[in-house]
Write a structure and sequence with these properties.
It is a single chain. The chain is an alpha/beta fold and about 475 residues long. The chain is built from 15 helices and 20 strands. The strands form 5 sheets. Strands 14-15-16-13-12-17-18 form a 7-stranded mixed β-sheet, sandwiched between helices. Strands 9-8-7-10-11-19 form a 6-stranded mixed β-sheet, sandwiched between helices. Strand 4 and strand 5 form a beta hairpin. Helix 2 runs antiparallel to helix 4 and helix 3 crosses helix 4. The longest helix is centred in the N-terminal third of the chain and has 22 residues. It is globular. About 55% of the residues are buried. It binds nicotinamide-adenine-dinucleotide and magnesium ion.
C-alpha cells in the first residue's frame, strides 16, 4: 500500500498460546470426544492448519443439553443470585488476566489485526461479563417485573466475525439471569471458545452450566432444534436466521435473531470532513468489514461529495493491509476462502452494473485470503452492492441533497441494524435519528459498542436486543 511513513515490523509473539493438535467438545465440565468427523481450523492469513476440532453429532448435542438441564435444575438455577454474580466476576477477571493469550489466539484463528483483538474484542468480552455480573443479584430492579425467572437451557449459535465477543454477548446475559448454555461457535473460528471452556474450568464453574459443542451448520441445527432447549439465540446470516425462525415457530422456545445489515453512514455538508473520514474508515474497514453493523452505504451530501471521496481515498492509501499479527496492521485477512469468494462475486456485480470501483495501489500477501479496501462511487440504490450485505471491506457511495432524501435513502433497505450521522448540528442529528429505522444510530462516531447499550435490528436484521437492561429480557420470564 502507498503509505506516508514506513514502519518497522512489530510482530506480536505467538508463543503465549499453546494450541493443541486437536480439541474435543466441552460437555458437563470436561473435554470429551465428538462423534462427528472432525474439522480443521486454519489461520486465514497463512492457510496454516492450526488444529483439528471435534464435530458434535445429534447425540453429542443431546448429551450437552442434558448436562445443561441438570446444571439448571441442580446447581445454577437454585444458586443464590449473588453467588452466580461472583462466578461471572471471576470469569471476567480471568479474561482480563489471560487477555493477551485470547487476543493472539483470536487473531490466529480469525485473521483480524492483533490491534483489534487486543484493544476491542477481548476487553469488550471482559466488559460484558463484568456488566452482567453486576446484574445477577439485581434482576428484580431491571424493570422486568417483580420476580423475573430464568427460562432454562439456552441454545446459542454464533458467527466467525467476533468469535469471543459474540460468545460473551450470548453467555454473559444467559448466566447472569440464571440460565445454562449450550453454545456452538462458528466452524472457522472455534479456538477462543475452547479456551473460554478452560476459563470456565479455572473459575470452578459448576459442570454443565456452560457447554461448548463445535461443528458446522448441522451441529447448529441440532442445538436449535433440540426439544429440551427453552431459548434460542442466533447471530449470523439472514438466510440461516430465517430457517431457524421456521424451525422454532410453533414450539415453546423463545427466539432472538441478530442477522445482517446494510447500514447507512450519512455525512452532511456541515460535518468536519477529516473526522467523518476517520468514522467512514472505521465504519467499513474495521474487522475487514466483517461486521453486521458496518457502515457499508456511505450517503454524502452532494455539495461535499468530491471532497469527502478525495479525502477518503487519501486516507485509505495509508491503511496497512497485511500480517494480522503485526501491531501496525490496520486490516487483516478475510476470514475464509468462501467469504472471499462471496466478496469477489458481489464486487464483480458492482462493476458490471456500472458503478466505479477504486482500490489503493500496493500488493497483497501471496498466501492466505485477502481483499483490498474498496470504494464504489456512481452507485445507484438499485445496484446489488447498494442492497446486499457484502460482509467485506467494500464501501458503496451515494449522494443526497436534502435531509429528507438522506432519510429516504437510508431507510431504503431490507435491513435495519445500525446507521451513522455526521453533522455539527445537534437538532438535525436528533431529528434524523428519529426517522431512521435502525436499532442503533451513532452520531459523529461509528461502530462504538458497549455492554450497557442494547443492540439489535429492525426488519430482516432480526429481532430482540442484546446488551443493556433490554438484553436481559430475552433470557427471563416476567410473568409471575
Ligand atoms: P451462517 O449464518 O451460515 O453461519 C453462522 C453460524 O450459524 C455458524 O456457527 C454456522 O455453523 C451456523 N449455522 C449454519 N447453518 C445453520 C443451521 N441451518 N442451523 C443452525 N446453525 C447454522 O453465516 P456464514 O455462512 O458464515 O456467512 C454468510 C453470510 O452471513 C456472510 O456473508 C454475511 O453476510 C452474513 N453474516 C452475518 C453475521 C452477523 O454478525 N450478522 C455474521 C456472520 C455472517
Ligand atoms: Mg480459523
Amino acid at each position: 500500500m502507498t503509505s506516508l511513513f514506513e514502519y518497522a515490523p512489530a510482530p506480536e509473539s505467538r508463543s503465549i498460546v499453546d494450541i493443541r493438535p486437536s480439541y474435543g467438545l466441552f460437555v458437563d465440565g470436561e473435554f470429551t470426544d465428538g462423534t462427528g468427523t472432525p474439522l480443521k481450523t486454519v489461520n486465514p492469513a497463512t492457510e496454516e492448519v492450526l488444529s483439528e476440532v471435534a464435530t458434535g453429532s445429534e447425540d453429542d448435542v443431546d448429551r450437552a443439553v442434558r448436562a445443561a438441564r441438570r446444571a439448571f435444575v441442580k446447581t445454577w438455577g437454585p444458586m443464590r443470585p449473588a453467588d452466580r454474580g461472583k462466578y461471572l466476576f471471576r470469569i471476567a477477571r480471568l479474561l482480563q488476566e489471560r487477555a493477551r493469550e485470547f487476543a493472539v489466539l483470536e487473531t490466529l484463528d480469525n485473521g483480524k489485526p492483533i490491534r483489534e483483538s487486543r484493544d476491542v474484542d477481548v476487553p469488550l468480552a471482559a466488559a460484558h461479563f463484568f456488566y452482567h455480573a453486576g446484574w445477577a443479584d439485581k434482576l428484580e430492579h431491571a424493570g422486568l417485573g417483580p420476580a423475573p425467572r430464568p427460562l432454562g437451557v439456552a441454545g446459542q449459535v454464533i458467527p466467525w466475525n467476533f468469535p469471543l465477543l459474540m460468545l460473551a454477548w450470548k453467555v454473559a446475559p444467559a448466566l447472569a439471569t440464571g440460565n445454562t448454555v449450550v453454545l456452538k461457535p462458528a466452524e472457522t473460528t472455534p479456538l477462543t471458545a475452547l479456551l473460554f471452556a478452560e476459563v470456565c474450568q479455572q473459575a470452578d464453574l459448576p459442570p454443565g452450566v456452560v457447554n461448548i459443542v463445535t461443528g458446522a451448520g448441522e451441529t447448529g441445527r441440532a442445538v436449535i432444534s433440540h426439544p429440551d432447549v427453552d431459548k434460542v439465540a442466533f447471530t449470523g446470516s439472514t438466510e440461516v436466521g430465517r430457517s431457524i425462525a421456521r424451525t422454532v415457530a410453533g414450539t415453546e422456545k423463545r427466539l432472538t435473531l441478530e442477522l445482517g445489515g446494510k447500514a447507512a453512514n450519512i455525512v452532511f455538508d456541515d460535518a468536519p470532513i477529516d473526522q467523518a473520514v476517520e468514522g467512514i474508515v472505521r465504519g467499513i474497514f474495521f474487522n475487514q468489514g466483517h461486521v453486521c453493523c458496518a457502515g457499508s452505504r456511505l450517503l454524502v451530501q452532494e455539495s461535499v461529495h468530491d471532497d469527502v471521496v478525495a479525502a477518503l481515498q487519501r486516507r485509505i492509501g495509508t491503511l496497512r493491509v497485511g500480517d494480522p499479527m503485526d501491531k501496525n496492521t490496520d486490516m487483516g485477512a478475510i476470514n475464509s476462502h468462501s467469504q472471499l469468494a462471496r466478496i469477489r462475486e458481489l464486487t464483480a456485480f458492482g462493476e458490471t452494473e456500472g458503478a466505479t470501483c477504486w482500490q489503493p495501489d500496493g500488493d497483497l500477501p501471496d498466501r492466505g485470503f485477502w481483499f483490498k479496501p474498496t470504494v464504489f462511487t456512481d452507485v445507484s440504490p438499485a445496484h446489488r452492492i447498494a442492497r446486499d450485505e457484502v460482509f467485506g471491506p467494500v464501501l458503496s457511495v451515494m449522494t443526497f441533497r436534502t435531509p429528507d432524501e438522506a432519510v429516504a435513502k437510508a431507510n431504503n433497505t431490507t435491513y435495519g441494524l445500525s446507521a451513522g450521522i455526521w453533522s455539527e448540528k445537534g437538532s438535525r442529528i436528533l431529528k434524523v435519528t428519529d426517522q431512521l429505522r435502525a436499532g442503533v444510530v451513532w452520531a459523529n462516531t461509528f461502530n462504538e459498542l458497549d455492554p450497557t447499550s442494547p443492540f439489535g435490528g429492525y426488519k430482516q436484521s432480526g429481532y430482540g436486543r442484546e446488551g443493556g437492561r433490554q438484553g436481559l429480557a430475552a433470557y427471563l420470564r416476567s410473568d409471575s
